[in-house]
Amino acid sequence: MSKKVAVVITKLFEDVEFTSPKEELENAGHTLTTIGFEAGETVEGKKGEASVTIDKSIDDVSPEDFDALLIPGGFSPDQLRKDDRFLEFTRAFSNDSKPIFSICHGPQLLINAEVVKGKDITSVKQVAVDLKNAGANFYDKEVVIDDSGLISSRTPDDLPAFNKAMVDALSE
C-alpha cells in the first residue's frame, strides 16, 4: 500500500542522502512531498549534485497528512532545527509513533525536537555526543531501528541498509 512520506529539507542537504532514499521509496510505490521554508523555492545540495524544488511550505502542511517523515543529512537539519515550526512538525510524528527516517546529521533536528530520549539511534560520528547528552542510546551501526519506528543510519555508505529498512517499515 502506498504511503505518503514528508521530507523536511533545505539548502546544503547531503545530495545522495535525499536522492537515494527518494528513488528507493518511489520505486516501492510511495509518494514523497518535500517541505521547506517556502514552496517553489529551489534548494541545492551541498555537493551541487542535486537540487530540489520545495513542494510545500512548512506553513501549509500538517503531520496528519503523512505516514512517515524523512530527514536527510548534510547542513539542512541544522538550519531546520532553529525553526519551531519544523520542531513541532517533527515532534508530532514521534508523538503519534509514525516512522521517522533519519540519516547522518538528521538527528540534530530530532535532538532539538526533544524526541530522542531513551531511543536507540545512530548518526554521523560528530553528532553522537549530542545524542548521548540528549538521553538517546547511541549505536555505531549502519542502521538502527528503534521500537518507536525511528530508523537511523550514519553516512552515505549506509544507504543500502537504510533504504531497505525504510521500504520494509512502510510495507508492514
TrEMBL record:
It comes from the Bacteria. Keywords: Hydrolase, Protease. Pfam families: DJ-1_PfpI. SUPFAM superfamilies: Class I glutamine amidotransferase-like. One of its GO terms (molecular function) is peptidase activity. The keyword DNA repair does not apply. Belongs to the peptidase C56 family. GO terms for biological process: proteolysis. It comes from Alkalibacterium pelagium. This is Protease I. Residues 3-168 form the DJ-1/PfpI domain.
